Amino acid sequence: MRRSAILGTGFCVPDRVVTNDDLAGLMDTSDQWIRERTGIEERRWVTEGQTSVDLALPAARQALEAAGMQATDLDAIVFATSTPDHFCPGNGVYLQRALGAGHLPALDIRTQCSGFVFGLSVADAWVRAGQFERILLVGEEIQSTGMDLSTAGRHTAVIFADGAGAAVLGPVPEDEDRGILGFDLHTDGDYAEKLWVDAPGSMYHPRISEAQLARGAQWLQMDGRDVFRHAVTKMPESATAAVTAAGYTWADVNLLIPHQANLRISEAVQKSLKLRDDQVYNNIMRYGNTTSATIPIALDECVRSGRLKRGDLLVLTAFGSGFMWGSCVIRW
Ligand code: UT7
């Protein structure tokens, strides 16, 4: 059976830099607290009126250029986001319109921080099945408009941020010994309300009420300690399962890109897997936690800086809202 490979990558973050000191002007927090607890030094937030397409389109164009393709070469779009511009239709629709790629199918998937890994598994399966040949996968989020920027929301507002990363996938012959080797994917809905946005929701009529707005049901809510505790066990467990299933050990792995949730989480994952510094990539210091966009943004940085080279064994792992988590092994 043929394999799929990532043929090009790209990313885009908003121009607006928000420093820890900027946040300390909005809520009771400090640069020291944020650095010590999360590793984040600054992040990017959109300015009013910027849309998902404003971030996703430049990322997609970079990925297409790196793959040596035009938008019209694409057969499908998979758009991973937990923060769509509208309840419906999905962000993929707006990206399809902006790309000028013809009437190709555009599928939104909502698996939050694990969005890029789950999206990769959908795109990989389509390529391997022969249903679509060339697929644009985007992870994009605008989190800044959904956070309580008062002191009550400080445990989320200092972490989450905006950005987009993209990858173009296509088929490679199996004898080329490169491409996506396998996945490990999970969901545990028992923890659905540990990291969630309650409203607007279609179980309410109207979908959001004055009372809900007054109590902040529209803001991202997180039990940070519980998320942290699960992330540091599930990411190493899942990544190891994926590496083992692909027939390798951690000694064979050149690079792990963990979802950039919190630098302390990435460091705990690295420690539990006994990996060297050169085997793990982190960039949360500069971008914060951009949910489904963290992995493709980091991936593009690794590709363009030469940190990831042809033939390297790459592992991606993510954990987040749902809880949903998963990993992917790729021969680059
Ligand atoms: O993308 C995947 C999903 N998200 C994550 O993976 C995030 C996982 N969780 C975390 O990263 C951490 O739990 C946080 C960074 C959110 C919080 O760090 P923590 O070390 O778990 O702090 P905490 O929630 O236990 O709070 C410790 C103290 C509390 O004060 P008291 O009760 O000890 O007086 C908080 O009120 O720190 C306080 N606090 C803050 N202080 C200053 C919480 N947020 C802030 C803040 N600035 N931004």
CATH architecture of the largest domain: 3-Layer(aba) Sandwich
Strands, total number: 13
The SS-based structural class is alpha/beta
| SSE arrangement, N to C | EEHHEHEHEHEHEEEHEHEHHHEE
Q: How much of the polypeptide forms β-strand, as a percent range?
A: 15-25%
Termini separation comes to: 18 Å
For this structure, the quaternary state is: single chain
Report on the biggest sheet. Answer: 5 strands, mixed
Query: Which molecules are bound besides the chains?
Result: oxa(dethia)-CoA
Strands of the biggest beta sheet: in what spatial order? Answer: 1-7-6-4-5
- CATH superfamily of the largest domain, by name, is Thiolase/Chalcone synthase
Computed over alpha carbons, the radius of gyration is 19 Å
For this structure, the CATH topology of the largest domain is Peroxisomal Thiolase, Chain A, domain 1
Helix content: 25-40%
